[in-house]
TrEMBL record:
It is a multi-pass membrane protein. One of its GO terms (molecular function) is long-chain fatty acid transporting porin activity. This is Outer membrane protein P1. Keywords: Cell outer membrane, Membrane, Signal, Transmembrane, Transmembrane beta strand. GO terms for cellular component: cell outer membrane.
Length: 464
């Protein structure tokens, strides 16, 4: 009977996770990753590989599912991401905020939905989590929409929206009283909106580096008074993108009780393997003579993957009330995000254009600290901090994809109505970070971008 209930819950959760994915939006944090999953990890600075963080273990370290008490758990939560992003032209002092311009600006909403069944030495789980993303929208009236070649106000909107949805299927097994192993296989859905104006000077710089090719190149070069080119693919709903694809990911993890009050946790998140994102798009040539000349076609964004990550953490219980977690992460961005590789094929003619926008992200180290204090049977308080090295080289910064905060402070509280019903809240603040880019080809003018944000998470857990 119990197994039938488990299978029924799994089928229901899969359907609900797909439904929720149509109601969510994108988010932006440490590069494209969230700074912790679930209210416990988020409030404790993103730590979670050596501590019971509830069903969010599927995103942190699936082995910690084995730390949950026996029973069936259902969790439902929502992130609210509130970014504050400003781009500044360093030459003129003009600035523009990424706010109130359309569907790609914040606040963003992201789901956390999960079911876990724990029995004796085994635990099984399935969930749906926003695994990362970004979102900007600067509108069509700022300096970002004006070409430096021929000084044309194009009216073209510069924006981006990325959502990475992960649906993990997880298992944990208690090998001994000290050692627990875990693993996850994930369905990964990536969707992207993008609107990007490139000045002719940027196009020339990309061409000189061999980063532009295709049969459309002579056609574009033949446009009289060519002043710029503009890619635009977008889904106007509150979720999804003009280009999207499904793929697979996975995690392995373990926990080891190295002392009665001290636990070690290790987890490895494999690089995602998602197909090339594809969808309908427009390529617009900006002419000082003929105005904007749009071409309709299909877009493909090749090899757009989320990175591998190694996490090592330790949790020490100082008393029945107080525990502290320390964690180190190594995120392998360099292998995942060297270029934004965009291809366009014109409808009808089959003529094509390929562009490689350099990114050259660096592998980074992330350090996190979190503490939990159980005040009584009902109230639990948490706090933490996280610092991540900067992944984005200054000279490849794109205004539409900053994702530059490196320091987060966090806190949270949970209230247990009883042992089977818990409501939890977490908040993290990404401290303002400023990055400048004075170099072609990713900007036509010297720019400065500032980015800060506040992330809120509310979660309800029911055990039955």
């Amino acid at each position: 009977m119990k197994s039938n209930n488990v299978f029924a819950a799994v089928r229901g959760l899969m359907g609900l996770s797909v439904a929720l994915s149509t109601m969510t939006n994108a988010n932006a944090t440490d590069v494209f990753n969230l700074e912790g999953y679930g209210p416990i990890s988020r409030a404790m600075g993103g730590t979670g590989v050596a501590y019971n963080v509830g069903t969010a273990a599927m995103m942190e370290n699936p082995a910690t599912l084995g730390l949950m008490e026996e029973g069936s758990y259902f969790e439902l939560g929502a992130d609210v991401i509130n970014p504050d992003i400003r781009a500044i032209d360093k030459n003129t002092g003009e600035s523009v905020l990424s706010k109130n311009h359309g569907n790609n600006n914040g606040p963003y909403f992201a789901p956390e939905l999960a079911y876990v069944y724990r029995h004796k030495d085994y635990a099984f789980g399935i969930g749906a989590f926003a695994g990362g993303g970004l979102g900007t929208q600067f509108g069509g009236s700022s300096f970002l929409s004006r070409t430096t070649t021929n000084d044309i106000d194009t009216g073209l909107d510069n924006f981006s929206r990325l959502l990475v949805l992960r649906i993990p299927f997880s298992i944990a097994y208690k090998v001994t009283d000290k050692l627990t192993l875990g693993g996850s296989v994930e369905a990964v859905w990536t969707s992207l909106n993008l609107g990007l104006l490139l000045d002719t000077s940027q196009i020339g710089n990309l061409a000189s580096q061999g980063r532009i090719n295709g049969s459309l190149v002579p056609t574009l070069l033949g446009v009289p008074g060519l002043s710029g080119g503009y890619f635009n693919f977008s889904h106007s709903g509150i979720v999804g993108g003009g280009a999207s694809a499904w793929g697979i990911g996975g995690k392995l993890g373990l926990t080891y009780q190295i002392a009665p009050d001290t636990r070690l946790g290790v987890a490895y998140n494999f690089k995602a393997d998602v197909g090339d994102l594809s969808g309908g798009a427009n390529l617009t040539a900006v002419s000082s003579v003929a105005g904007n000349i749009p071409l309709s076609g299909r877009i493909v964004v090749r090899d757009f993957q989320m990175p591998a990550q190694l996490s090592i953490g330790i949790n020490h219980k100082f008393s029945d009330q107080l525990s502290v977690s320390l964690e180190y992460q190594r995120v392998f961005w360099a292998d995942a995000f060297k270029n934004i590789n965009v291809g366009f094929v014109q409808n009808g003619t089959g003529a094509n254009l390929n562009v490689l926008l350099p990114q050259n992200y660096r592998d980074i180290n992330v350090f996190a600290l979190g503490a939990e204090y159980r005040y009584n049977d009902k109230w639990t308080f948490r706090g933490g901090a996280q610092y991540a090295q900067e992944a984005i080289p200054n000279n490849t910064l794109l205004t539409i994809a900053p994702a530059i905060p490196t320091t987060h402070l966090s806190g949270g509280v949970s209230y247990a109505f009883n042992k089977d019903n818990v409501l939890a809240f977490a908040m993290s603040v990404g401290l303002q970070k400023t990055v400048s880019n004075d170099s072609q080809p990713n900007t036509a003018v010297p720019i400065k971008v500032t980015h800060s944000q506040v992330n809120l998470l509310l979660n309800y857990q029911r055990r039955f």
